[in-house]
Design brief:
Elements (H helix, E strand, L loop, with lengths): L12 E2 L2 H14 L4 H19 L5 E6 L3 H15 L3 E6 L8 H12 L4 E3 L2 H6 L2 E5 L11 H13 L3 E4 L21 E5 L9 H7 L1 E5 L4 H7 L4 E4 L21 E5 L6 H13 L4 E5 L5 H5 L6 E3 L3 H7 L2 E4 L7 H16 L4 E3 L1 H9 L9 E3 L3 H8 L3 H6 L1 H12 L2 E4 L5 E3 L4 E4 L11 H14 L4 H23 L9 H9 L2
Parallel strand pairs: 2-3, 2-5, 3-4, 5-6, 6-7, 7-8, 9-18, 10-11, 10-13, 11-12, 13-14, 14-15, 15-16
Antiparallel strand pairs: 1-9, 16-17, 17-18
Helix pairs in contact: 1-8, 2-3, 2-4, 3-4, 9-17, 11-12, 13-14, 14-16, 17-18, 18-19
InterPro entries: Carbohydrate_kinase_pred_CS, CARKD, Nnr, Ribokinase-like, YjeF_N_dom, YjeF_N_dom_sf
GO molecular function: ADP-dependent NAD(P)H-hydrate dehydratase activity; ATP binding; metal ion binding; NAD(P)HX epimerase activity
Protein name: Bifunctional NAD(P)H-hydrate repair enzyme
Amino acid sequence: MLDTQLTTSLSYKLFRADQVRENERLAAEKSGCNMFTLMLRAGEAVFRQCQLLLPHAERYLVLVGHGNNAGDGYIAALQAKKAGKQVHVCAVEPQRKLEGDAGEAQKRWREGGGQVEAFSAAVLEDASLVIDALLGTGISSSIRNEFADIIDAVNAAEKPVVSVDVPSGLDANTGQSLGRCVEASVTVTFVGIKPGLTTGAGKQSCGTLVYEDLGIGRAFSELARSSATLLDIEQFRSMGPRDVHSHKGTYGRLLCVGGNKGTAGAIRLSSEAALRSGAGMVRVFVHEGSTVQVSAGRPELMVTDEKLEEALKWATCVVIGPGLGQDEWGEQVFTTVMKHCQAHPKPMVIDADALNLLGKQSTAYTINDCILTPHAGEAARLLGVSVEDVESERFNYARQCSQRYHATCVLKGAGTIIDNESKTWVCRHGNPGMATAGSGDVLSGILGALLAQGLDKDTASTYGVTLHGKAGDEVARLHGQRGMIASDLFDSVRVLINQ
C-alpha cells in the first residue's frame, strides 16, 4: 500500500496573499525581528537569485512602484550596487517620496548614491537583467496604464526578469492577469507561496518559482492555515513490495469503457497505462468497430464489444470516457455504466466524453467514490460557465466541480488542481510537452489502476496526478518536450511506481 509522507514544510503549503499580509508582522515579532528586517532579507534574496540566474550580468534595471514591493526592489538595487553592478532604478513617479519601510529602503538607496529616474526604452535596451518590483500582492483590479505600458515594454524586450514576490499584474490568489502581467524568468516569493503562482497562466507568468520564508516560516505556520498543498513525487514513499503469494486478482479488476468507432486510440492508451501502473487485470469494452485496433499489439488487454453488464459485474473499478463519443452508442453505454455503478457502488474515473454526457445529466447520478478529470473546457461544460471563467479562477471552479458532483475533481492543465470538496492540492510536476493528444487518457488509466489496487480516492488522485506529471518531466529531461507523445510516458510511469 502507498505510504504518503506527511510534511509540515512551508515549501509544500499555499497561502492566500491576504493571509500573508495579515500574519507576517506578528510572525516577525515572534521570530525576534521587525518588518524592515524582512524587507532587507527579501531584497538580499532577490539579488541572490539574480546572481544565480545571470552571474555575469553587469547592468541591472530595477523597476519600482509605490508599496513594500518597491522597498524590496530598492534593497535589491542597493545590494547590486554594492556588488559593483551598474544599476538603474526606474519608477512610475520618480519624485514620489515613499513612506514606512519602503520609504526607509528608498532613503538608503539615495543615501548610497543611487538615483531614481523615469522609465525609458533606452534604459531597458541597455539592461542585462530586470528586477520587477512594480506591483505586489495588494492589487485586485485592472492595473493603471502607466504600469501597463512598462509591463508591455519589458515583455517585448525579452530580457531575463526576476520578479519580487509576484509578477507585476498577476492576481496572487487566482493566477489571473489583471490586464497586463510581467512574464518573469524567476519569481522569488516570500513568507508563504501564493496559490496563483502555481497553476494556469500564473504558473507560466512566474517562471521558476523560488520560495524564501525570510526566517519567519515556523512562526507564520503557527498563525496561518494553508489554503492548499503542493504535491511533489518525493512526498510519496512507495507502494511497497508485493506479497509473494499474491496473484493477478489481488491487484484489482479494472474495466475501461470507451473506444467508439474511429476513436479506439484513447481507450487503448488509458487501458495500457492501467497495466503499466500495476492493475492486475484490465478489460476493455469498446464499439464493435474498435476491437481489433485496441487488442492489436497488446494481448494482455481483454477486449470485448458485448455483454457490458457482465463486464461491469466482473469489475472492481471502472474508467469511462476515453473515446466514448456522444452519439447514440456512447449515450447508451454511459447510461448503462452509470446506472450499474449507482446500484452497485465501486470506484470510478469519469473522463473525456463521459464528462460531457454527465454535464447534460448532472442531476441523474450520484456516485460516491468517483474521480472526475476535466480540462478547462470540460469543467466549463460541467458547471455551465465559460472556459475563460474557469481559467481565471481555477481553484474556485475546481471546488465548485467537486461540490456539485460530490466527487474528487482533477482539473487538468499547468499546475493540475485536485479538490475533494474540503481539501485542495496542486501538482508541481508536468511540462508543456505533455500538451499532446492522449496525455489525459494516460492519466485516467493511471488513476483507475491505483483505485483498482485498493488506494483510497484521495491518495489515488494525488499520487496518480503526481506520478503522471513526474513521468512527463522525466521524458522531457531525457528527450526534450517537443515531439513527446502520450505513450512515451509508459516506461517512466513503470519506473517511478516501482521506486
